[in-house]
Design brief:
About 40% of the residues lie in helices and about 10% in strands. By secondary structure, the protein is of the alpha+beta class. The strands form 3 sheets. Strands 1-2-3-5-4 form a 5-stranded antiparallel sheet, with helices on one face. Helix 2 packs antiparallel against helix 3 (about 185-195) and helix 3 (about 185-195) packs across helix 5.
């Protein structure tokens, strides 16, 4: 049968009886995502073909927790397979804070990292020709703080709204728009930022207050996620300090995205995400020792 056509050449014809379009929840940035039968249709993005190449790699690696890229339909939309299950809303419901689910999120991220190994490593993780990574849509000159050298391509946006759940366990990841080069520890930290959640208690979703019960509760949940992932001793010592250092980069990148990309990025900035980042930095700094101790 041979290898499938590259992402840019792939066309999706579909079937006439696939059914009607069902609107899916809007993300922070991407709108117009719909389900049609067993497929998801998304407006094309500058990073579409880079993401598609990554999804192709994950399929070849046997990773079952990501959608498959099927091609472009007649309307020019990206077509991906639909992963059945439950996805948390915005804000996420109390069921999404279950500790068993939290541990399984860590395990899913670990499996993703193992499947991602080797993809584009020889190219310095540059996006495939004709595409870009989502992070590269923001001019590098706008974020002068140096970032760590990447180790792999990964999801970079494992939020409760991007994880598919079945029977209380994380089974899939969706919305790979922000996929790109990162370190393993940074992806774990980003996941913890949303799922613990690692943030000032004032910024914890109202639906999760009392679940992530103050600093001690957040420290305990960080341990659950780290155990689920199988984070090593060095990572456990470094993850909170990484979060503190990342705050300046994240603030700069969010501001630049709002200015250069507009849309949902500008909306989030106007709603005060920059202030939330500053509060998170201060909270992590104040509770660094307590959080790190819980991981040992």
């Amino acid at each position: 049968m041979g290898e499938p056509a590259g992402p840019a050449a792939r066309r999706y014809a579909g079937n006439v009886d696939e059914g009607r379009e069902i609107e899916l929840p809007r993300g922070d940035v991407t709108e117009g995502v719909v389900r049609v039968g067993d497929t998801v249709r998304r407006p094309p993005q500058p990073q579409s073909f880079a993401v598609a190449a990554y999804l192709d790699h994950l399929e070849r690696a046997g990773f079952e927790g990501s959608p498959r890229y099927l091609g472009r339909d007649d309307a020019g939309r990206d077509v991906l397979t639909f992963i059945a299950g439950d996805v948390a809303g915005d804000p996420p419901e109390p069921w999404a804070a279950d500790e068993g689910l939290l541990a399984s999120v860590g395990a899913l991220v670990r499996r993703l990292h193992e499947a991602s190994a080797g993809f584009l490593a020889g190219s310095g993780f540059a996006a495939p020709a004709g595409s870009v990574w989502g992070r590269d849509l923001v001019p590098a000159a706008t974020t002068p703080v140096r970032e760590q050298e990447p180790e792999l391509i990964t999801h970079c946006d494992v939020t409760p709204q991007n994880v598919v759940v079945r029977d209380g366990h994380a089974v899939g990841l969706v919305d790979f728009d922000l996929a790109g080069p990162a370190t393993r520890l940074l992806d774990v930290y980003n996941t913890a930022m949303h799922w613990v959640p690692l943030r000032d208690p004032a910024d914890v979703w109202v639906t999760w207050r009392g679940i992530a019960d103050g600093h001690a509760g957040q420290a305990a949940r960080l341990r659950v996620l780290a155990d689920g992932y199988g984070l090593d001793a060095a990572g456990r010592e470094a993850i909170v300090d990484l979060g503190i250092r990342r705050a300046a980069i994240t603030w700069q990148r969010m501001k630049a995205a709002a200015e250069h990309l507009g849309g949902g990025w500008a909306r989030m900035w106007a709603e005060g995400v920059g202030d939330q980042i500053r509060r998170r930095e201060a909270w992590l700094t104040a509770h660094r020792d307590e959080l790190t101790a819980a991981l040992r």
